[in-house]
Specification:
The complex is a heterodimer of chains A (324) and B (313). By secondary structure, chain A is mainly alpha-helical. Chain A is 74% helix and 4% strand. Chain A has one domain: ABC transporter involved in vitamin B12 uptake, BtuC. Chain B has 313 residues and is of the alpha/beta class. The chains are: A mainly alpha (324), B alpha/beta (313). The interface between A and B is medium-sized, with 33 and 32 residues.
Chain lengths: 324, 313
C-alpha cells in the first residue's frame, strides 16, 4: 500500500476533498455558512436524502436502480399520516381501528418494505430490468398515494408525531439521529455481514456469484425491500417535519438520491462503492443546495450548477477507475 | 396472411364493441381536462366541476395532463374521437394549449377554460379566469400596510416555468417596489412545495435572521415557510403571506399564524364552467369571452366569512 502513488491516494478521497473545497469557498463567500445553526440546518435537511440514498446504494451496488423511492416515500408517509389522523374503517362494518404513533409508523414502514419487495419480485421473477420495474412502481405508488389521500394533504398530525421532525435529543436533532443510525447499521451490514459481501459480489459479477452458490434472487429481493423500507423511513421523516403528508411529496427525490450515490463514487454498473461515500455525496448536494440559497443565486442558475457538479463527479470518478 | 386475418377479426370485434357502447349511451358527456392533479387546488377544481356536471344530469370524466402539454393533446384527441359534448378545460400552457382548443372547437365541441388563460382572444367558447395579477396587487397593498412601509422581506416563488408564478410575483412587486423602505433581501423558488419552502426558508434565515415579512406564491409554501420560522423561534416576528385560500392557511390565519392570503374561488370557477356547458347544450351561444373571477384578500378581519377554497355558505 505504501508504494501507492500520491495521485491514487488523492483519488481515494476525491469526494472528501471536493466537499472540503466547497465548504472553504462557501465560508469565504458567506459568513453565515460555517455557523452552528446553519450546520444543523444542513444536517437536518440532508437526513432524509441520506436514508433514501443508503437504500439506493445497496441497490446500485447490485448493478440495479430504484426509481420508485420518491413515490414509495410519499405513499408510506401518507399511510402513516392517514392512519394516525383517522384510523381505518373495517370494510363492511362500522368498526374503526385507531392507530398509536408507533403503530402508524410501523404500518408505513411495512408498506414501504412490501412495495420494495414487490419491486424485487418483479425484477427477479420476470427478469424485468430494474429501471423498468421500478419505473412502473414510481407511477403505481404515486397513483396509490393519490387514491389514499384523494389528492389532498393530510395535516395536523399532533405534537408527539411532529417531535420526530422538529425535536432534539441529547443536543442533536432527532432527524439526524435517525440518519446516523441508518448509516451505522448500513456500514455494518455492508462490511461485516455475509449478506453485505454478497451484495458486492453480485454487482461485481452476477454469473460468477451464481456459480459460486449465492442465492442471487434472495439477495436482490432483500436489497429492494431495504430500499423500500428506507424510503418509508424518509416518508415518515418528511411527514413529521411538515406536520403534514403531501400527496406530491418526494417528487424527484430519486434523482437527488442517485446523484448522492454517484457523487459518492459508487459505480452505476455495480460492485464498487461504499456507504460513507454516499453520505459524502448527500452532504455535498445538501451543502450545495444550502450554499446557493445563502448566496441568493438565481433559481435558474441553481439547476445548472447542480447538474454540472454531478457531471464533474462522474467524470472524475471515471478517470480514477481507469487509473486503478 | 394468417396474421392479416386475425387482425381483421380483431378489428371487427372491436368495431362491434364500439357501436354497442354508443347505443347504450344516451346521456351527454362532459370531459374535464386539468393541468395537474398533483396539487390539491386543482383536485378541488376538477372534482367540483365533475360534481356540478353530475348534478346537472351529465356524465363526466376527469383527465389529468400532468403539467404536460403533449399529454394534454392526447387527451383532446381521445375526447374528440370518443365524441364528448363539451370540455371544461384547465390549460397547461397559455400558448401551447391553443392548438388543442382549436382542434376541439373545429370538431364542434365547446371548450370552457377554467382558472388559467389561453392567449387567444376567440379560441375558447368562454374563459372563466382567476385574476391572479389583481389579486396579488391586493396582497401587495396589505403587505405594505402591515409592514408599515419599511423593513426587509423574502419572496418565495412557485415553479419558475409557470405563468401564475410570475403573474403573482409581478402583481405583488407592482405595488411593493414603489416603497423605498421595503427591501427584498432574497427571492428564491420553492416550486409551490411545502417541504422545499421549509428548507429554502431555513437557509435564508441563516443569512437574514431579521426579516420582517415573507410573500409566498402559494399557500403550501406559506405553510412551509411558517414551519421554518416556528422552529427558528421567529414565528411571531415575521409576517407570512400566502396565495390560494387553502384549508390549512385559512385555519392558520384564524390562529394568527399567517397574516393574509389571496382567496381564489375554484368552486365558483368550476361551477360556472359546468353551468355554461349546460346552457350551451340548451342553445345559448353568446357567452362572455372572458369572465374574470376576482381574487379576494383574506385577513384576520374578514376570516370568518371564508372557508377553504371559498366563502362560507
Amino acid at each position: 500500500m505504501s508504494a501507492q502513488p500520491i495521485y491514487l491516494k488523492v483519488a481515494k478521497y476525491q469526494s472528501l476533498i471536493a466537499l472540503f473545497i466547497l465548504c472553504l469557498a462557501l465560508s469565504f463567500l458567506s459568513d453565515k455558512f460555517l455557523t452552528a445553526s446553519n450546520t444543523w440546518n444542513v444536517l437536518r435537511q440532508i437526513s432524509v436524502n441520506i436514508c433514501i440514498s443508503v437504500g439506493m446504494t445497496f441497490v446500485v451496488l447490485t448493478a440495479g436502480i430504484d426509481l420508485s423511492v420518491g413515490s414509495v416515500l410519499a405513499l408510506s408517509g401518507a399511510i402513516t399520516a392517514g392512519l394516525l389522523k383517522s384510523g381505518i374503517e373495517l370494510p363492511g362494518s362500522n368498526l374503526f381501528i385507531g392507530f398509536t404513533i408507533s403503530g402508524a409508523i410501523l404500518a408505513g414502514m411495512v408498506t414501504g418494505s412490501l412495495l420494495g419487495c414487490f419491486n424485487g419480485w418483479i425484477i427477479t421473477k420476470f427478469k424485468v430490468p430494474p429501471f423498468v420495474a421500478t419505473l412502473g412502481m414510481l407511477t403505481i405508488a404515486r397513483g396509490l398515494t393519490m387514491l389514499w389521500t384523494k389528492g389532498y394533504p393530510i395535516s395536523g398530525l399532533g405534537n408527539h408525531f411532529a417531535y420526530i421532525g422538529s425535536g432534539w435529543l441529547l443536543g442533536i436533532p432527532v432527524l439526524v439521529w435517525i440518519a446516523c443510525i441508518t448509516v451505522v447499521t448500513a456500514v455494518f451490514i455492508s462490511n461485516k455481514t455475509i449478506f453485505g459481501r454478497y451484495i458486492f459480489a453480485i454487482g461485481g459479477n452476477e454469473n460468477a456469484s451464481r456459480l459460486s452458490g449465492i442465492n442471487i434472487n434472495k439477495v436482490k429481493l432483500m436489497v429492494y425491500s431495504i430500499a423500500g423500507l428506507l424510503a418509508a423511513v424518509g416518508g415518515i421523516m418528511v411527514a413529521s417535519r411538515l406536520d403534514s403528508a403531501q400527496p406530491n411529496a418526494g417528487m424527484g427525490y430519486e434523482l437527488d438520491s442517485i446523484a448522492a450515490v454517484v457523487i459518492g463514487g459508487t459505480s452505476l454498473s455495480g460492485g464498487r462503492g461504499s456507504i460513507p461515500g454516499t453520505v459524502l455525496g448527500a452532504v455535498i448536494i445538501g451543502v450545495l443546495n444550502n450554499g446557493l440559497v445563502l448566496l441568493d443565486v438565481s433559481p435558474f442558475w441553481q439547476q445548472v450548477v447542480k447538474g454540472l457538479v454531478i457531471l464533474l463527479a462522474v467524470i472524475v470518478d471515471k478517470a480514477n477507475s481507469k487509473v486503478e | 396472411m394468417k396474421q392479416v386475418k386475425v387482425l381483421l377479426l380483431m378489428l371487427a370485434v372491436l368495431a362491434s364493441c364500439n357501436s354497442h357502447s354508443k347505443k347504450s349511451d344516451g346521456n351527454k358527456k362532459i370531459a374535464i381536462i386539468v393541468s395537474t392533479l398533483n396539487n390539491p387546488w386543482f383536485v378541488f377544481l376538477a372534482e367540483t366541476a365533475a360534481k356540478k356536471a353530475k348534478a346537472l344530469g351529465y356524465d363526466s370524466k376527469i383527465f389529468d395532463s400532468q403539467n404536460n402539454t403533449a399529454l394534454e393533446a392526447d387527451h383532446f384527441e381521445n375526447v374528440i374521437s370518443s365524441e364528448y359534448n363539451a370540455i371544461l378545460f384547465n390549460p397547461t400552457d397559455a400558448t401551447g394549449s391553443i392548438a388543442n382548443v382549436t382542434k376541439a372547437i373545429n370538431a364542434d365541441i365547446p371548450v370552457f377554460c377554467m382558472d388559467r388563460e389561453i392567449n387567444s382572444a376567440d379560441g375558447a367558447t368562454s374563459q372563466i379566469l382567476s385574476d391572479n395579477y389583481s389579486g396579488s396587487i391586493e396582497i401587495g397593498k396589505y403587505f405594505v400596510e402591515m409592514l408599515n412601509k419599511k423593513g426587509t422581506y423574502v419572496e418565495l416563488l412557485g415553479i419558475v416555468s409557470d405563468n401564475n408564478t410570475w403573474n403573482r410575483s409581478k402583481g405583488f412587486h407592482s405595488i411593493v417596489d414603489n416603497y423605498k423602505g421595503l427591501k427584498m433581501v432574497a427571492q428564491q423558488s420553492a416550486d409551490f412545495d411545502r417541504n422545499k419552502a421549509l428548507e429554502v426558508m431555513e437557509s435564508i434565515l441563516q443569512v437574514h435572521p431579521d426579516i420582517d415579512g415573507v410573500f409566498c406564491g402559494n399557500d403550501a409554501m406559506a405553510m412551509g415557510a411558517y414551519q421554518a420560522l416556528l422552529s427558528a423561534g421567529k414565528a411571531d416576528k415575521v409576517k407570512v403571506f400566502g396565495f390560494d385560500g387553502a384549508q390549512d392557511v385559512i385555519k392558520s390565519i384564524k390562529q394568527g399564524k399567517i397574516v393574509a392570503t389571496g382567496m381564489q374561488f375554484p368552486k365558483i370557477i368550476a361551477e360556472t364552467a359546468a353551468t355554461y356547458a349546460d346552457e350551451y347544450f340548451k342553445g345559448k351561444r353568446d357567452f362572455p369571452k372572458k369572465k374574470p373571477i376576482a381574487v379576494e384578500l383574506v385577513n384576520k378581519e374578514n376570516i370568518d366569512k371564508y372557508t377553504g377554497y371559498g366563502k362560507k355558505q
